Amino acid sequence: MKEFFPEIQDGIPYGGPDSKNPLAFKYYEPNRVVGKKSMGDHLRFSVAYWHTFKGTGADPFGAGTFDRPWNRGKTPMGQAENTLRAAFEFCQKLGVSHYCFHDLDLAPEGETFSESCRNLEAMVKMAKQLQDDTGIKLLWGTANLFSHPRYAHGAATNPDAHVFSYAAAQVKNAMAATRELGGENYVFWGGREGYETLLNTDMKREQEQMARFFHMAVDYARQIGFEGQFLIEPKPKEPTKHQYDFDAATVLGFLGAYDLWDHFKLNIEANHATLAGHSFEHDLTLASMNGKLGSIDANAGDTLLGWDTDQFSTDPAICARAMLVVLAQGGLGKGGLNFDAKPRRGSFDPMDLFYAHISGMDAFARGLLTAHQIMEDGILDNFIKERYASYSEGMGKQIMSGDATFETLEKWIMEKGEPVRVSGRQEMLESIFMSYC
Ligand code: XUL
Ligand code: CO
User: Fold this and answer.
1) What is the pLDDT of residue 236?
2) Are both 218 and 318 inside the same structural domain?
3) Is the pTM of this model over 0.70?
4) Residue 5, pLDDT above cutoff 90
5) What integer best gives the mean pLDDT of the chain?
6) What is the arithmetic mean of pLDDT over 179-186?
7) In sequence order, which residues have a C-beta less than 8 Å from that of residue 218 and are 6 or more positions away?
8) pLDDT tens digits for 357-406?
9) How many domains does the structure of the chain reveal?
10) Which of 349, 377, 405 is the last residue of a domain?
């Protein structure tokens, strides 16, 4: 059978931190035990089908540049089969355990809805065989409800119920495909669920429609016995001016307001958090502290650019901050680290996909090691515990147990007077943190 990556024959070796070989791992050793689990189990890396195999390198100013021999073929289904073979060859040679897809990454859209369904069924059959042959697993599936012109005004939030119904039919099939392939999660990223202008938009109605859509998804999952975790992926803008799933806080508020809290967790993407004006670790922490951090889209933006550049993370300090949140909650469970990331337009050679993923995997592996050591030593944790210690005793304890009132606190302040000011020690903590990186 034709090989798409003949330059790599024996997988990617481990070269260690001193290696200068860009085709060797410096930190990622899947079987190395860190704490109670192997690195592979901590990180559960996944390759994103849409960027890595279907991305073209096109941007608003120019055509695609990526050289992707697998995207050639006599028919759309022939191309799809070649792409699937390339995907499993790549994942196997790279040594990642998981992949993720949209329905339309895997199978081409047909002339009719039923032809699209048949295409997807055929590709799922082939994917199942390749999963069995290689042991590579599906981290999550999703439906592309944003590319086709029918979704120009949204999918579930579309003003036309006909479009809502089309989206529902599409998700029904994408969810069934995910279940068939043993997908551990199903993701909802609201690609065009938002608005451009309130002059033509009933925001309340659109959000009610979105809630109905999610309730139907929950019902259908129950009906077909899909046991994967449902994840919503927040993003503040792009493609629409204002996306309804703006950030972790907004999505959590929505889940609570529409009686969906128990059915969803979040898939936090680094570049989406930064687009929302947050740090990556902010949105991770917000999701995690609510018991809702389910999975991660592991990428990075560019601080000089205000859009979703979807770059591979190369900053071990940011990765360490992220892994601190993951370790503190005891891991990602069914989730993983999905590289929702692409090489730059000028990096058009298939080999660039290896360089990109290897450096992304190393950045997070190094982040994991750093975070683990920080947790083991406990210096930063102890500082935070100590900072709030006044709530564990005396009046602080009464405040938290509900025994204090404004009146008792006023009386207490009359006696005690002015509090002693304590430094937040930010620079000292930054210096300690950096000493681990
Ligand atoms: C878009 C994005 C998507 C989702 C899946 O910004 O992140 O690729 O991850 O639909
Ligand atoms: Co994403």
Assistant:
1) 98
2) yes
3) yes
4) yes
5) 97
6) 98
7) 230, 260, 263
8) 999 999 999 999 999 999 999 999 999 999 999 999 999 999 999 999 99
9) 2
10) 377
Of the three residues 377, 403, 426, the one that is the final residue of a domain is 377
Same domain, 275 and 249: yes
| CA–CA dist 276, 278 (Å, integer) | 6
Confidence of residue 2 (pLDDT cuts 50, 70, 90): confident
Report the helix count and the strand count for the chain, using DSSP H and E: 16, 12
Q: Answer yes or no: do 186 and 293 share one domain.
A: yes
Specify whether 292 is located in the same domain as 169.
yes
Asked whether the beta carbons of 45 and 95 are under 8 A apart, the reply is no
What are the Cα distances from residue 112, in Å, to 106, 116, 118, 146, 421? 17, 6, 10, 18, 69
Residue 293 in any domain: the answer is yes
Q: Is residue 372 part of a domain?
A: yes
Residues enclosing ligand 1, CB less than 6 A? 50, 102, 142, 187, 189, 233, 235, 269, 297, 308, 340
Q: For residue 141, what pLDDT band results from cuts at 50, 70 and 90?
A: very high
The domain that contains 132 carries what CATH number?
3.20.20.150
Q: Tell me how far the alpha carbon of residue 271 is from its chain's centroid.
A: 10
What spacing in Å lies between the alpha carbon of 365 and ligand 1's midpoint?
A: 23
Tokens 């994942």 -> residue: 91
Average pLDDT over residues 165-184: 98
Question: Is residue 309 domain-shared with residue 396, that is, in the same domain?
Answer: no
Give the number of the atom of ligand 1 that is nearest the alpha carbon of residue 297: 9
Question: Within this chain, do residues 416 and 298 fall inside the same structural domain, yes or no?
Answer: no
Quick check: 73 pLDDT over 90?
A: no
User: Which of these, 204, 278, 203, 196, lies nearest to 234 by C-alpha position?
Assistant: 278
Residue whose CB lies within 8 A of the most ligand 1 atoms, among 98, 192, 269, for a mutation test: 269
Full domain range(s) for residue 429:
382-436
Contact 11, 93 (CB under 8 A): yes
Where does the pLDDT of residue 122 fall: very low under 50, low under 70, confident under 90, or very high at 90 and above? Answer: very high
Number of Cβ atoms within 10 Å of the Cβ of 62: 9
- Asked, for residue 422, whether it belongs to a domain, the answer is yes
Q: Does 221 fall in a domain?
A: yes
Pair 128, 88: CB distance under 8 Å = no
Do 216 and 354 fall into the same domain?
yes
Ligand 1 atom 7: residue of nearest CA:
340
Read off the pLDDT of each residue in 299-314 and give the average, rounded to a whole number: 96
Q: What is the DSSP string of 224-244?
A: HT--SEEEE---SSSSSSEES
Same domain membership, residue 397 and residue 313: no
> In the predicted model, what is the mean pLDDT of residues 104-114?
97
Q: Give the H/E segment covering residue 337.
A: strand 337-339
